[in-house]
Amino acid sequence: MELHFPSNFLWGSTTAAYQVEGNNYNSDFWAEEHADGSPYKDKSGDTIDHYRLYREDIALMASLGLNTYRFSIEWSRIEPEPGQYSRSAIEHYRDVLETCYQHGITPVVAMHHFSSPKWLMRMGGWASPEVPERFAKYCEVVFREIGHLIPYALTMNEINLPVMLREIFSKIGFIPPVGIERDAWVAPKWRESAAKLCGTTIENYFTFHMISDESSINILKETHQKARQAIKRIQPNTKVGLSMALSDIQSIPGGEELAAQKWHSYFRQYLPMLEGDDFFGLQNYTREVYGPEGQVRPAEGAELTQMGYEFYPKALGNVIRKVSKDLSIPIMITEHGIATDDDSRRVEFIGKALEGLQACLDEGIDVRGYLHWTTFDNFEWQSGYSMKFGLIEVDRSTQERKVKESARYLGSISQLNILVKK
């Protein structure tokens, strides 16, 4: 049985600057990696050297049949010090965009993917009321130079992730940033060292992943809105949105109210922030099941990914349906993936999830594209290089790329615009 997709459907994959470019030493995450007692298992270093090898990488994506590439621009490269903008960095990203077009690839650009300039921490980080204007100015500089090459822009990636982290850890009194294990985050010296490497003190150290209280969430909302206004003022034809990480929230008897609370906390509380957006970036990896006592662990014997997530590809279609109830704008799947050494499971994961996505299209839900996380095995934050999310393997001793079967599978679906249902 063949499942057909719309003729203009976006098929592609996703990266984040910090995780693939290498040597983003002006970033707050670089400070976290190199802090005394840092829990990061590896140093990012050159990562997969995408900053140098992007032309070959984009050509490889195109050769596989993918027609879209979502990547991020690193704020700390564009603005290494407050008000100082790097011409060479702007020209680099100009060439990345032009290379996409040379290969028939549509670029989708995130203006922020977790990492921020170190200097922002000196100003109080993402708790500072200066952030909205400063981030909007950064977006303005980029869009005045290269905005005509950016048809789709996400202001920020996974704006709700800090609240999800807070939900997980609030009962024990602290909030770790993304990818940081609970035990590692309790060591105050590690945080103090990271702050010092950013040129500030622990009192000012407030990374993107700490945005979970009312005050900082309000700053986040204002930041998105001002960035969108700046982009639209310069490039009114650019489609602007943001992305959220959304598990498929389910319940068993007695857990309905808690599940509803979680869905409000993770998604519905942010709906006012989306007013005026052109599209919504949906990112899904698994499901969460709630009972009367809280989150229920996966059943014994359930298949788990390297990240410890339940293997549950049906989650994607379920979440699309849930968000569509509250949205009147198109949906783009801006991340969906699985960490595994067994690439056959990635193929299965993609295929089953796309069956659910296509069913949503048949129901009349406006889904514009599917972008898989991630293009390459890369630097997965605290987990270092141990998590294998990529469609393409990388030998980091030689930086040689090795295409996996999952990349060919997704590429063939893209080329034909058809999924053959097994």
Automatic annotation (TrEMBL):
Segment forming the signal sequence: none
GO biological process, one term: carbohydrate catabolic process
Keywords: Glycosidase, Hydrolase
GO CC annotation terms, alphabetical: cytosol
GO molecular function, one term: beta-glucosidase activity
Pfam families, A to Z: Glyco_hydro_1
InterPro entries in the cross-refs: GH, Glyco_hydro_1
Domain of life, per lineage: Bacteria
PANTHER family linked to this entry: GLYCOSYL HYDROLASE (PTHR10353), LP05116P (PTHR10353:SF36)
Family statement: Belongs to the glycosyl hydrolase 1 family.
Protein name: Aryl-beta-glucosidase
The species this protein was found in: Neobacillus bataviensis
